[in-house]
């Protein structure tokens, strides 16, 4: 059986080829393109090499800095609110209630539907005259709100839509984590007379921490990837108030036709995501060790 | 993961009615926007613009007839000029999503089998790569994929940009890391004895894989298929950059029709509903597989 040794490579080859050609090569290509001044009508060979100019130019570009600020603000707000809501609801609803499996099914829907469609529906609901929100406000005698046409409100509006779409993700993962907690620690705490709040803060949350951190990381990464929902709802406006980085990259490439700058911007975004991932990985290691110690303490006590 | 809720520590048999109210309220909030979309798609524009109630109107299928006029077997009376854009886009979307899902599943399952069984690459490396790939926002791939697909991956005069195969290659690559990751977690659970028995009976490695392993990981394949289909079906940014008039998918046509100032909400909601229906059906019939896929990365890894 000489070909036995080669078998794993036969099985892996197609996947490796596709990943190499369609993922790794493009990412390497992007790093190279970020050092070029290049517009879409040129072949890459005709583009001029400009070194780090795109990177330094971006750092002093007002619009890029504003867009970066909007992105960080958006990601920080949506992820913290969704974590609080999602984990809170999971802790509250982790009990035998009829209809929970129906709720979980219904909760997946917002995540499964195309982001384009989510943007469309929310844009309709935020519509100044025919939208549900303003109609309701007017019906109870309140003033209309400029949901998508005011810079404060438009950011708030896309945050609300994101919370609607993604809180269920955190809820479902937290619920799964809660249900796989070791019974022994919870039993021990209850026998010792820990109150519900004490159980949550001293037993449940510390034990869920590894899962919560991964969940938070996944959500944070996705928050930086949001594009279609914002594109359809506000297209970055008014002004640059909702122009998140993904959107700015797309516009720099297609509207301003500066592929090199767009690539450099992509690289900044990628480096930012890598930094966040690394920080959270280190934190996971630390908290895993701490959670282990908590279990031991709880079991001894 | 089990669908039934575990009795929790504070396992009271009768639950406070407040919890049922909360569960119902959450379900209504999650479903509301989707119901509004479906309802609007059944309204004439007159009803959308009028000040009457959201839910009291004469439902009509005319918006769907307008959208689908090209693929209907009759010509609807109210459509004066039939725009073939959407019928064509629907066909493109179906072809692209189905073919890329099929290819991803086959080569992903093969790679997952190699990794799970032949033990020559650590699972740590795999989960690390999966997470890294998940970090890459589609916007980051925009510039390199556009450049390479338009200028480098050419065969004679024909380039990958604009063709079905070009976008299918992108979607396969985007989905492979996740599919490999989730499928290998299913393959690891199959008892090796089954494969050994097949091998003793004279089956070669490929027969073992296709006739023994694949049928046993159907639930994993279902989860992987849903996630892959959903990405390929919903994706906008790269499809917009790569596809031309004739190969455009539904999300691209939706965004294109939005740029006009005067939006026909009924028609566009009908388009959105058609785009949303496949994911909604998957969710209703396979919510369990979806939750498995969602929690696999975070709770187990």
Mean pLDDT across all residues of chain B, rounded? 82
What letter string, H or E per element, gives the SSE order of chain A? HEEHHHHHHHHHHH
Give the spatial strand order of the biggest sheet of chain A.
1-2
Main beta-sheet annotation of chain B: 2 strands, antiparallel
Can you tell me the residue ranges of chain A where pLDDT is under 50 for at least 5 consecutive residues? none
Number of helices of chain A: 12
Output the CATH topology of chain A: MetI-like fold
Q: Structural class, judged by helices and strands of chain A? A: mainly alpha
Textual characterization of the structure:
The complex is a heterodimer of chains A (301) and B (301). Chain A is mainly α. Chain A has helices spanning 7-33, 53-59, 62-93, 100-112, 115-125, 132-139, 151-179, 183-191, 196-225, 228-233, 245-254, 259-300; strands at 36-37, 48-49. Chain A has one domain: MetI-like (MetI-like fold), CATH 1.10.3720.10. Helices cover 74% and strands 1% of the residues of chain A. Chain A is globular and about 75 Å long. The model of chain A has no long low-confidence stretch (mean pLDDT 86). With 301 residues, chain B is an all-alpha fold. Chain B has 2 domains: 33-44 and 59-83, no CATH class; 88-265 and 275-300, MetI-like (MetI-like fold, Orthogonal Bundle), CATH 1.10.3720.10. Chain B is 70% helix and 1% strand. Chain B has helices spanning 17-41, 45-49, 62-68, 85-118, 123-135, 138-152, 164-187, 192-200, 205-216, 218-234, 237-242, 250-258, 265-300; strands spanning 154-155, 158-159. In chain B, helix 8 (192-200) packs antiparallel against helix 9 (205-216) and helix 12 (250-258) crosses helix 13. At the A-B interface, helix 1, helix 3, helix 4, helix 5 and helix 7 of A face helix 1, helix 4, helix 5, helix 6 and helix 7 of B.
């Amino acid at each position: 059986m000489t070909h036995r040794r080669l078998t794993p490579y036969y099985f892996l080859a197609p996947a490796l080829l596709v990943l190499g050609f369609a993922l790794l090569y493009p990412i390497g290509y992007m790093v190279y393109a970020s050092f070029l001044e290049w517009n879409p009508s040129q072949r890459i060979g005709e583009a001029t090499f400009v070194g780090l100019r795109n990177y330094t130019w971006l750092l002093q570009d007002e619009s890029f800095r504003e867009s970066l600020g909007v992105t960080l603000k958006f990601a920080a707000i949506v992820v913290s609110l969704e974590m609080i809501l999602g984990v809170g609801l999971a802790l509250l609803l982790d009990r035998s209630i009829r209809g929970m499996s129906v709720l979980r099914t219904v909760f997946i829907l917002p995540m499964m539907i195309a982001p384009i469609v989510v943007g469309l529906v929310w844009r309709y609901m935020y519509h100044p005259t025919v939208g549900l929100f303003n109609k309701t406000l007017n019906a109870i005698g309140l003033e209309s709100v400029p949901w998508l046409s005011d810079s404060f409100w438009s950011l708030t509006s896309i945050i609300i839509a994101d919370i609607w779409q993604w809180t269920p993700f955190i809820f479902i993962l937290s619920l799964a984590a809660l249900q796989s907690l070791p019974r022994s620690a919870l039993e021990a705490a209850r026998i010792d007379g820990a109150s519900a709040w004490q159980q949550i803060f001293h037993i449940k949350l510390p034990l869920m921490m590894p899962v919560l951190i991964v969940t938070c990381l996944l959500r944070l990464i996705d928050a930086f990837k949001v594009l279609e929902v914002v594109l359809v709802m506000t297209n970055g406006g008014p002004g640059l108030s909702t122009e998140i980085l993904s959107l700015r990259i797309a516009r720099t490439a297609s509207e301003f036709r500066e592929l090199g700058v767009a690539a450099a911007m992509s690289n900044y975004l990628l480096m930012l995501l890598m930094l966040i991932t690394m920080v959270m990985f280190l934190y996971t290691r630390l908290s895993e060790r701490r959670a282990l110690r908590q279990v031991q303490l709880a079991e001894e006590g | 993961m089990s669908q039934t809720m575990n009795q929790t520590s504070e396992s009271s048999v009768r639950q406070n009615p407040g919890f049922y109210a909360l569960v119902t309220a959450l379900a209504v909030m999650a479903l509301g926007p989707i119901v509004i979309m479906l309802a609007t798609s059944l309204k004439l524009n007159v009803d959308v613009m009028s000040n009457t109630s959201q839910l009291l109107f004469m439902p009509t299928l005319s918006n769907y007839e307008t959208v689908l006029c090209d693929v209907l077997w009759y010509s609807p009376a109210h459509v004066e000029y039939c725009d073939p854009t959407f019928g064509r886009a629907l066909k493109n979307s179906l072809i692209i999503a189905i073919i890329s899902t099929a290819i991803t599943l086959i080569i992903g399952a093969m790679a997952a089998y190699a990794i799970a069984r032949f033990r020559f690459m650590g699972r740590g490396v795999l989960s690390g790569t999966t997470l890294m790939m998940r970090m890459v926002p589609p916007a980051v791939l925009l510039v390199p994929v556009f450049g390479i697909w338009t200028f480098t991956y050419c065969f004679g005069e024909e380039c990958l940009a604009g063709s079905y195969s070009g976008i299918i290659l992108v979607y396969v690559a985007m989905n492979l890391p996740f599919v490999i990751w989730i499928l290998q977690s299913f393959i690891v659970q199959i008892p090796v004895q089954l494969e050994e028995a097949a091998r003793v009976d004279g089956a070669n490695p490929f027969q073992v894989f296709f006739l023994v392993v694949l049928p046993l990981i159907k639930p994993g394949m279902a989860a992987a298929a849903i996630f892959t289909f959903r990405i390929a079906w919903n994706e906008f940014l790269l499809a917009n950059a790569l596809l031309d008039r004739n190969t455009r998918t539904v999300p691209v046509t939706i965004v294109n029709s939005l740029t006009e100032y005067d939006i026909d909400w009924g028609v566009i909601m009908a388009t959105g509903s058609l785009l949303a229906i496949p994911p909604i059906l998957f969710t209703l019939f396979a919510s369990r597989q979806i939750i498995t896929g969602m929690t696999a990365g975070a709770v187990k890894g």
